[in-house]
């Protein structure tokens, strides 16, 4: 276990925390800062003494991966001051690393490295505040922009357009610059910027962007792995269009999007980035392993729009990819991203039957290089951002919808003459495309353990006090970050969209804050439900960002937080909105045996998630307004869930059941989805204890049934708990390739156990072991495994499955669940974490 590598470090920092964070525990840098880049190798004995972090990194796939990029921010490492020296160790060897400015804001912000992995391989990485080595490492990337100095601008002799004065730069010599903003008279082929714009390369391939009205994206094919840009264009524009010792320009760009260029998409045509007030290029990183530059277009004018636009392009060693992150200062319409169309080439399209956040591609292969040989070009993009594939006669285009004010994509070129492992056939190119899409969709798994976190966390002695403390710390951190931004018309940071009236950001999280307000007496937590949930309720009772006709049971869950708003402020609009949610459940389609469909668009399907989304609200509403007449429906939903989704051999629950057996994920005999998804079971566990708590004394029979179901489930969960005290994303496949300990489900289960114990549902006798000890060790595991203390004093919850579902590209397989994005600080995890701490505090302080 990674956490045990810190034993020596913990002993040296065993003074107990007084309950305050980083102001007391930041490790001082008491070393001389000599170099920025860590060395290549070493033979010094490695220990965890003076370690800033010990990090487990794992290849989540069953194939080798070379040059996988890894980055850790200083904030995550607990470093308030920005160091100039850090080293990365694997065993007793130092691996190359680089301190970088990842976001391009002009200040270094974290540590970057590249690692090679065998299939399913796991490393333990140690990060230290030490000088690694003065030994040089090979330069595998480069970014530069170079302009002439010492000469002068002269009017061109031939002026085809008398309204324009064109100038060339005559004489002088080239010098590299960190930033270049061309003068107003600058145009293409002015002999001022070497190869006409900023360039970037890896040891595989190079690219350039024209810093003029063409905004062309071009490719430098490389014959060797050595950096080449410094030798390109020194004698003008002609030489690099023919084969040189290093390679050549291999793409005819013309009026196309070239190699991964972009523009606006308007009525089946591309609006180029042509009319721009000022272009400015800045080299943000020029390192051995990672390089990048940004171009600001201030503003980009097209049609009736004037948009300040930033393109941030980066590359890392061993990769053909450049990543382009586009940011805009206002909401944008659809964008065209693509590459030039060439004759006699084959268009290749990636799989679209994938989850929304997974990557796919659009590519071409054939004799389209200026050398007359084979060249492959590809755009890699997340399915969720695509609005379709198109072409305008000049370029193959992925039409992309910005998520808010941002678009992110990758471009890759593979030239037949490339040195080393050249891609010289269509079959090899197709294999590269599929492998790259998988690598982008399933990045390296990490488990981060930092000295700052261990110094801040009391090694659980009084779990009851610790648990409430961390609930408040998480709540305060999320208030600082984003929790109040989930109001109607606000912004869902993680999903990059306007908030909808949905279960997590508008329902679960405000509900957790309200529970914390009750536990602490602090009004700021109670106010969240008013500022977030209540903001969706219009004066006439209509609910913003909600459509009853979708019959989405997820949208019912915010009703619990809204009920609390109504109890404090009994306005008619809130009562009307609550009745609208009740009306949805009255009309919600059901299976033939009476189970609620998950959504209108998921016919005949019962999901574990839906039990939590609908049943606690229905219970509370029917008791408050209907004298409890719908409790039979609630009981039936739980009993059908147990009957249909529980596996009698394991005691675990399948994610979903399709009555029609029509879905591709459904077993054709049973209708069940194949895997045991932990958070699905977490939703069910929370629903059980929440409903039991709401039941009045005269519902003893229903209480007994749900309690028996809870006890059975608790014994199953005990069986599948990991030695760390946590649970895995797919519960019965611990340590399988790609699987990981998942924090949101782990928090839900801790909440379930603590609340079931407090309510008397679980006892030492029916659980079969010391229940309080089990709860305490599970909570300690939750904190030890997933909580990260930042340099700014906030905390985070790591390793959360962002979303998971079935259908629409989600096939329910093990590989599918491994493909969904792993996130931090999502309300589906932070909400249960806050609730878990409250319940642990209540149970263990009795």
Structure report:
There is one protein chain. The protein is of the alpha+beta class. The strands form 10 sheets. Strands 14, 21, 22, 23, 24, 25, 27, 28, 29 and 32 form a 10-stranded antiparallel beta sheet that branches. A 5-stranded antiparallel beta sheet has the order 5-4-8-2-33. Strands 9-15-16-17-18 form a 5-stranded antiparallel beta sheet, with no helix packed on it. α12 (about 680-695) runs parallel beside α14.
Short synopsis of the structure:
The strands form ten sheets. Strands 14, 21, 22, 23, 24, 25, 27, 28, 29 and 32 form a ten-stranded antiparallel beta sheet that branches. A five-stranded antiparallel beta sheet has the order 5-4-8-2-33. The protein has 846 residues and is an alpha+beta fold.
Low-confidence stretches: 1-44
Alpha-carbon distance between the two ends? 33 Å
Strand content: 15-25%
The global form is elongated
Largest sheet: 10 strands, antiparallel
Kindly provide the radius of gyration, computed on alpha-carbon positions and rounded to a whole number of angstroms: 29 Å
> Helical residue percent?
25-40%
The computed structural class is alpha+beta
Q: Count of DSSP helices?
A: 18
The pLDDT mean sits at: 92
Care to count the β-strands? 39
């Amino acid at each position: 276990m990674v956490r045990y590598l810190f034993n020596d470090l913990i002993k040296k920092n065993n003074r107990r925390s007084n309950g305050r964070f980083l102001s007391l525990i930041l490790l001082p840098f008491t070393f001389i800062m000599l170099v920025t880049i860590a060395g290549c190798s070493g033979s010094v004995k490695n220990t965890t003494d003076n370690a800033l972090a010990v990090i487990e990194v794992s290849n989540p796939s069953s194939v080798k991966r070379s040059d996988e990029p890894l980055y850790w921010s200083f904030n995550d490492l607990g470093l308030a001051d920005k160091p100039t020296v850090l080293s990365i160790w694997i065993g007793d060897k130092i691996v190359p690393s680089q301190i970088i400015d990842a976001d391009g804001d002009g200040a270094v912000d974290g540590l970057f490295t590249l690692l090679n992995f065998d299939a399913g391989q796991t490393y333990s990485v140690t990060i230290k505040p030490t000088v690694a080595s003065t030994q040089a490492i090979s330069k595998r990337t480069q970014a530069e922009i170079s302009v002439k100095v010492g000469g002068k601008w002269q009017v061109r002799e031939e002026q085809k357009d008398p309204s324009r004065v064109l100038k060339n730069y005559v004489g002088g010599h080239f010098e590299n610059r960190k930033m270049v903003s061309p003068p107003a008279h600058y145009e293409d082929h002015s002999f001022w910027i070497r190869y006409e714009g900023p360039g970037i390369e890896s040891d595989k391939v190079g690219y350039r962007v024209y810093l003029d009205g063409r905004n062309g994206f071009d490719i430098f094919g490389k014959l060797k792995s050595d950096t080449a840009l410094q030798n390109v264009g020194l004698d003008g524009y002609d030489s690099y269009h023919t084969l040189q010792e290093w390679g050549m320009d291999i793409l005819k760009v013309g009026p196309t999007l070239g190699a991964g260029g972009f523009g606006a998409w308007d009525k089946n045509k591309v609006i180029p980035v042509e009319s721009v007030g000022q272009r400015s290029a800045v080299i943000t990183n020029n390192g051995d392993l990672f390089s990048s530059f940004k171009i600001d277009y201030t503003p980009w004018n097209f049609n009736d729009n004037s948009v300040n636009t930033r393109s941030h392009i980066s590359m890392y060693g061993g990769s053909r990819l450049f990543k382009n992150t586009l940011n805009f200062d206002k909401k944008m319409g659809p964008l065209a991203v693509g590459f030039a169309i060439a004759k006699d080439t084959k268009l290749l399209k990636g799989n679209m039957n994938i989850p929304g956040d997974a990557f796919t591609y659009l590519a071409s292969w054939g004799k389209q290089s200026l050398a007359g040989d084979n060249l492959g070009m590809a755009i890699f993009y997340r399915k969720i951002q695509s609005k379709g594939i198109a072409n305008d006669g000049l370029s193959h285009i992925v039409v992309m919808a910005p998520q808010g004010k941002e678009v992110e994509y990758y471009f890759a070129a593979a030239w037949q003459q490339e040195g080393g492992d050249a891609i010289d056939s269509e079959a090899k190119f197709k294999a590269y495309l599929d492998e790259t899409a998988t690598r982008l969709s399933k990045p390296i798994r990490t488990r981060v353990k930092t000295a700052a976190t261990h110094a801040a966390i009391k090694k659980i002695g009084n779990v009851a006090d610790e648990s409430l403390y961390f609930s408040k710390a998480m709540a305060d951190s999320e208030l600082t970050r984003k929790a109040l931004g989930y109001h109607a018309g606000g912004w869902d940071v993680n999903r990059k969209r306007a908030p909808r009236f949905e279960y997590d950001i508008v329902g679960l999280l405000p509900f957790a804050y309200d529970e914390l307000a009750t536990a602490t007496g602090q009004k700021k937590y109670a106010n969240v439900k008013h500022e977030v949930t209540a903001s969706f309720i219009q004066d006439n009772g209509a609910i913003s960002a909600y459509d009853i006709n979708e019959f989405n049971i997820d949208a019912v869950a915010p009703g619990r937080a809204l009920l609390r708003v109504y109890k404090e402020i009994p306005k008619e609009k809130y009562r009307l909105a609550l009745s609208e949610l009740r009306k949805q459940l009255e009309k919600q389609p059901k299976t033939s045996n009476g189970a609620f469909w998950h959504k209108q668009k998921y016919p005949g399907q019962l999901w574990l998630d839906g039990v939590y989304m609908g049943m606690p609200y229905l219970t509370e509403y029917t008791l408050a307004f209907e004298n409890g007449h719908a409790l039979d429906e609630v009981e039936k939903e739980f009993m059908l869930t147990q009957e249909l989704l529980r596996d009698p051999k394991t005691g675990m629950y399948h994610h979903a059941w399709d009555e029609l057996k029509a879905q591709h994920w459904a077993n054709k005999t049973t209708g069940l989805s194949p895997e045991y998804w932990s958070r699905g079971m977490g939703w069910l566990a929370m629903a059980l204890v929440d409903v039991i708590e709401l039941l009045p004394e005269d519902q003893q029979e229903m209480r007994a049934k749900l309690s028996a179901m809870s006890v059975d489930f608790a014994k199953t969960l005990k069986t599948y708990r990991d030695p760390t005290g946590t649970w895995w994303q797919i519960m019965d496949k611990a340590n399988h390739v790609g699987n990981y300990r998942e924090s949101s489900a782990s928090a839900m289960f801790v909440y379930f156990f603590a609340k079931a114990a407090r309510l008397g549902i679980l006892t030492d006798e029916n659980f079969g072991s010391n229940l309080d000890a089990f709860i305490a060790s599970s909570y300690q595991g939750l904190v030890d495994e997933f909580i990260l203390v930042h340099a700014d004093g906030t905390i985070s919850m790591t390793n959360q499955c962002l979303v998971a579902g079935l259908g629409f590209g989600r096939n329910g397989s093990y590989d599918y669940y491994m493909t969904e994005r792993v996130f931090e600080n999502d309300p589906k995890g932070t909400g249960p974490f806050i609730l878990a701490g409250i319940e642990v505090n209540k149970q263990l302080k009795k």
